[in-house]
Design brief:
By secondary structure, this protein is α+β, with helices and mostly antiparallel strands. The protein contains four helices and five strands; from the N terminus they run E-H-H-E-E-E-H-E-H. The longest helix is centred in the C-terminal third of the chain and has 15 residues. It is globular and about 40 Å long.
Length: about 140
Amino acid sequence: MTTIRPIREEDRDAWLPLWRGYNDFYRNEPTDEVTQTTFRRLCDGSDGLFGLVSEDGEGRLVGLAHLVFHSSTWATGPYCYLEDLFVSREGRGSGAGMALIKGVYEEADRRSAAHVYWHTQQYNAPARSLYDTVAHATSFVVYER
């Protein structure tokens, strides 16, 4: 049984290994300041950020989803960017990933978001096999500086 709920301040110690696992996968090394600021923003909803977590049947956190709600020039309602999605090894295969995405869609609907979108690495085949069942890939190419 997977439960999806908003992240809370008391989740910090259980969230941190998930956050580290996510960043390790993407070969990212956020500073402690970035980690602390991100967690605070997720909990208090500042700067458009909102966090969800997935609990297993024993109440352990096994996944996270970090959302960014922002305005768009293409719609009157906000867009929802799913910036981070991660499920621990222990949570994989449990339906936690699908449940998190459904939780994202529910929060986006609650806020009348016109659009939900996210990026992933081309080589992330396990996640992409899930994403292909809940959304469609677009033709957009991402550029960075």
